[in-house]
Write a structure and sequence with these properties.
By secondary structure, the chain is α+β, with helices and mostly antiparallel strands. It has helices at residues 13-26, 39-46, 50-62, 91-97, 116-122, 159-162, 170-176, 196-201, and strands spanning 66-69, 73-76, 81-84, 102-113, 129-139, 142-152, 182-193, 211-221, 226-235, 239-242. A six-stranded antiparallel beta sheet has the order 4-5-6-9-8-7. The longest helix is centred in the first third of the chain and has 14 residues, at 13-26.
Length: 255
């Protein structure tokens, strides 16, 4: 039986429709990444205008609960993998902490001369040798991110030839094999449109407005030396970064 809208309440009709759809999503009515009713179908079901139905879907979208594919409809968003920003950890550690199985596919592994950006980030001379490791990162066989790590060859020689990073954790190897203690990192974030290669590797839908979160991170050792510069593209629909913020108490200066 269809839940009815209430006309004797201050809550707008589109939010009432949103609430009903949210209950149905949580109850598994539409399944994982299932398709929701169209604007027309919602308008007929609830006896409202298509504008009101559109507002309900847009509200769910703004809350990150659904996503739209051009020409195909609106779909339930798969629960996102969340990474906290309070501590320095590897992708492998983050995914295992969420109860998932991490996996990597090595796309590129080679020693190359540092270009201007890499040399600047790692604070090394231009054209110095760096180990470049590009991987597609998975959680339970779902592709989540494309990571390209650059490390000064001098700090970890033969890193790529002696280790298989399809299975091994880069951070674990750095700490246990090379004795490098990673202390902290500096990161920047920006949203961007995925390019054709990223859409293919991350299994993004064709024809949709696919967003990736680009992350640039420089990781330092305990003596403030840059050890790794990594640029990543995270699947915008399936990965979230989470941070806790606390208010700073204002100090009142008395005369």
């Amino acid at each position: 039986m269809t839940e009815m809208l209430k006309g004797n309440t201050a809550r707008p009709l589109y939010l009432q429709i949103q609430d009903i759809l949210l209950k149905e999503i949580q109850a598994g009515v539409y399944g994982t990444e299932g398709k929701l009713p169209s604007e027309r179908e919602l308008a007929e079901r609830f006896k409202v205008s298509r504008m009101t139905a559109r507002q309900a879907l847009q509200s769910l979208h703004q809350h990150g609960l659904v996503y739209a594919q051009v020409g195909k409809g609106t779909f339930v968003r798969r629960a996102a993998f969340k990474q906290g920003l309070e501590s320095l950890s590897s992708f492998t550690e983050d995914i295992r902490a969420l109860g998932q199985v991490p996996h990597s596919q090595v796309l590129f592994a080679q020693v190359m001369p540092a270009d201007e950006i890499v040399a600047q980030r790692l604070q090394i001379p231009l054209h110095s040798p760096v180990s470049v490791l590009k991987r597609l990162r998975f959680a339970n066989q779902q592709p989540l991110a494309i990571e390209t790590a650059h490390l000064p060859y001098a700090c970890c020689p033969n890193l790529l030839s002696r280790h298989d990073f399809t299975h091994e954790s880069l951070y674990r190897v750095l700490q246990e094999v090379y004795g490098i203690r990673l202390a902290y990192a500096e990161q920047t974030f920006r949203a961007d449109l995925a390019d054709a290669t990223e859409r293919r590797l991350l299994n993004m839908a064709d024809g949709a407005l696919n967003i990736v979160l680009r992350v640039a991170r420089v990781t330092f050792n305990s003596t403030d030396q840059p050890i790794e510069y990594v640029s990543s593209a995270y699947h915008g629909a399936h990965y979230e970064f989470q941070v806790s913020l606390r208010a700073v108490r204002a100090q009142v200066m008395l005369p």
